[in-house]
Amino acid sequence: MRIFSRPIxxxxxxxxxxxxxxxxxxxxxHPSRSAEAPKPAMAPPAxxxxxxxxxxxxxxxxxxxxxxxxxxxxxxxDAWLVKTYLACWKPARQPADADVYIAQVxxxxxxDGSLMKPAKxxxxxxxxxxxxxxxxxxxxxxxxNPLPVPAQYRPFYEQWxxxxxxxxxxxxxx
Length: 174
Known about the structure:
Elements (H helix, E strand, L loop, with lengths): L5 H16 L1 H7 L19 H7 L15 H18 L14 E6 L11 E2 L9 H13 L13 H4 L1 E6 L1 H4 L2
Antiparallel strand pairs: 1-2, 1-3
Helix pairs in contact: 4-5
């Protein structure tokens, strides 16, 4: 005699499986059956557009740091600058009994290598016998104007826009 029919046997197997897995876990998995079903959260009212615009930071344009020469590039530029000015300089004869006069000239350049303003002699000679030397230095600066700045140094204008050049007659004699 058959006690259980097939549909009932299926239900019993489902009940046994549910109890083995944990009936509570199966029951609460579906949100419609859960006693703790999440309730939709109400969003706060949106603030007026002018308040949102005032709070929203405007994206800043990316700021590129200024290009900087490496120490080796700086040394290369300085050597090129001195060599260029020495090529334009015809030093005046210095008196034999005078000390060696090394003129220092402060220069301000435009990006194209031309002088932005007149050159300034930082250390004018106190000895009148050395005045021709100072004049020859100032003439050299004018003869080299504008400087043909090499392309590799042009991006670094901020570093070379003002320079002080030392005109040493002993270096020029080499």
